[in-house]
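Quick check before the chapter quiz. The format below is the same one you will see on the exam, so make sure you can read both the input and the output lines.
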Amino acid sequence: MSSRFVQLVVDGLATGSIYAVVALAIVIVNRTTGLINFAQGSMAVLSTYIAFTFVQTGMPLALALVLAVVVSFFFGALVERLVIRRFEGGSHHVAVVVTVGLFVLIAGIAGWIWSYNTRQFPSLFPIDSVSIAGASVGIRSLGTVGTIVVAMLLLQLLFLKTKLGLALRAVSGNRESAALSGLPVGRLLMVGWGLAAALGAIGGALVAPKLFLSPSMLDFVLVYALAAAILGGLDSPLGAVVAAWVIGVAENLAGGYIPFIGDDLKIAVPMALMFLILIVRPQGLFGRKEVVRV
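Here is the expected output.
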């Protein structure tokens, strides 16, 4: 195995982990409300700016991130309570369009407050590198991958092994039946959006040192994240992460080994892969097939 191949794969995993951060947040909202939140990227950027503001006051980065996560949780819950809930009883299409509007609005607010100039965000991990199979791998990349793995496992445990996770799944599956069973549907919806926003804060802090902090920092990442969430299965945290890694590695290997693709066309490779897989398995790699009684 050549060092170049290892380098491309590791870099692809690190890039895929960036997509996975936002994809996991999309999965949380979908498993709670059944919606796809197009505003997830701009919400994560706003959370990162909050952490950046705390850091600018001299606060340690770790503490600033913890506070940003807490603020983001309440912000996400507030968005669900004041905005999304007004449209959840109607068509899903209307609610999705509302999240697109939120995407534009939140990005505009971030640009208005902090300007559209790029900022340097401090890294949670050292910028040193280690050698793996002859390839130079950044500790920051390894830290990002490790963080995503931990987040994925915790979400899997939350949804499959805890009462809160089972309640969130029940609300997503059938809101009326969940309410009749005595579940506090409104609070659970707020918790789902809050968890997604909190995860977005962590993701933004992982992404910003590599991409530079700006209101449009996660715009292109959102496209890959949506592809990963759909490819992996919109109800599967594990699927979202695995699909994001597949996308990251596939585009890196294609750009490195197929001459006519290079850096310009490598975005088409994972998208083509996604279409082919979804033709065979429409519910995604790890998604559950829905059975409709007629």
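If your answer matched, good. Residues 258 and 266 are 9 Å apart (CA to CA).
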